[in-house]
Each structure stands twice: as structure tokens, then as C-alpha cells.
Amino acid sequence: MGQSELIYDIPSYVIAVSVFCLMVLAGMVARGWGKRVQLNTDAEAVAQASAVQGSLLGLLALLLGFTFSLSLSRFDERSVAVVHEANTMGTAYLRSDLISEKRRDAAKGLLRQYGDARLAAVEISAADHVARAQMVQRAAVVFDVLWQIAADEAREFPTPVSMGFAASLNDMIDALSTRNSAIDRHVPELVLFLLFGTFVVLGAVIGFSSAISGVRPGVPVYAMTLLIAVLVFLIIDLDRPRRGLIAVDQSPLAAAVGAMQR
């Protein structure tokens, strides 16, 4: 990955459960504190706590919408990148039919190897940075040989056909770079920490408000807390490629590589 992230390697469900527990714990602590100061509060203080609670709910809704939108856009970028890479590989393979016969078989064989390397990389968790880097390097080595074939073809036969084959290889390596960049791009952790902090503060305010008003938190409050934990899980799971329950569909790439083998 391009930058160090504190919580990236922590499973999504662990983070969601931790946020839920911290929110409930903050509510319990704040409720205990509220009971101690309950005798010194008046209707104005209760109204103020309710107003703060409503404001926090509005802020939370804004942060949830913003963060969910960010994670969903990252997920869409990765999905588009898979389709684009599959298309560029298929185009390069089709154009290899048009180059000279003495280089055609070698180019096709190398393109198959490149496709196999890229498809194998899909099975590697994005959290396994070492193995992932090795697979990218393997594809890069195959590409270097492919590019040399394209360069030799263009020098010997400087025609639109040879130039088109070289251009398709250039698009293919650009697609690899784009896809790797999309995998490394996540919702900034500062945004996630702000979101988690708002959850905990909201739990504390709900607990304190319920104590000074003399009304115990009901089922809707706990249902909302549980829903927040589920939303946290979805946001983080969407933001993490090749991990968790939500995964980018790799079938376009598999189909392109399968077509090369026929």
C-alpha cells in the first residue's frame, strides 16, 4: 500500500463490534454520571441535552452519507478498473493475430502468461502486500518481453498494424497501473476516526440525556445503535478490496483470460 494505515488489517466485523460496544459503554457511563447530577438539573438543561442529541444525530447522518458515498465510489472505481483491464488484454490478444507469423505465437503465449498472472493475483488478499507485489512483478516481467516483441515488430514492419499492437500493450500496462492504484485508494482514516468518535459521543449524550430526563433508553435506541454498527461494517467492507463479504466481480477478467486459452 502507498501509505501506512492503522486499522486496515483489522477485520471489518471486529471494528463494527468495537464501535457498538464503545457506544453502549459510553452511554452507560454517561447515564451513571447523569443520575448523579439529576437533582441539580431543570427543564432547560433537559431541553439543551435533547437539542445537542438532535444536532449530533444530524451530524452523524451527514458523516454516514459522506463516508458511505466515498467507500461506494472506491468500490465502483475498482469494478470499472477490472472491466477496463479485461478489455485491454482482449484487444491486445486479438491484435496479436495481425503481426508477423514469426512473432505471433510467442506474443500469444506471453499474453496468456500475463493473463494467468493477473488472474492469479485476484486470489491474493489485498492485505498480503508481499505476495501481491510478487504477482505484479511477475506480470511486469512478462510484459517486458512482450514489449520487446512489439518493438522488434514495429522496427521491422513499421505499419499501422504493428503500431496498433504496441498501442494495445501500452493500454494494457496502463490498465494494470490504474487497477493497482484503485486497490490502494481508501476512505481516509481520519474520516473514519471522526465517524467513530461521533458514534461514541452520541452514545454518551443519549445516556446522559436519558438519565437527566428520567426516561430509560428504549428498544428504538438500541435498534439505532445496532443499525449504526451494521452501517460501519458495510462502509469498511466496501472500502476493502478482496476482503470481507462484498467483493468486486472478477468475472470479466476471468472471461478474457479464458478466451485466450481457446
Automatic annotation (TrEMBL):
<protein>
    <recommendedName>
        <fullName>DUF4239 domain-containing protein</fullName>
    </recommendedName>
</protein>
<dbReference type="Pfam" id="PF14023">
    <property type="entry name" value="Bestrophin-like"/>
</dbReference>
<feature type="transmembrane region" description="Helical">
    <location>
        <begin position="45"/>
        <end position="68"/>
    </location>
</feature>
<keyword id="KW-0472">Membrane</keyword>
<keyword id="KW-0812">Transmembrane</keyword>
<dbReference type="InterPro" id="IPR025333">
    <property type="entry name" value="DUF4239"/>
</dbReference>
<feature type="transmembrane region" description="Helical">
    <location>
        <begin position="219"/>
        <end position="236"/>
    </location>
</feature>
<feature type="transmembrane region" description="Helical">
    <location>
        <begin position="190"/>
        <end position="213"/>
    </location>
</feature>
<feature type="transmembrane region" description="Helical">
    <location>
        <begin position="12"/>
        <end position="33"/>
    </location>
</feature>
<keyword id="KW-1133">Transmembrane helix</keyword>
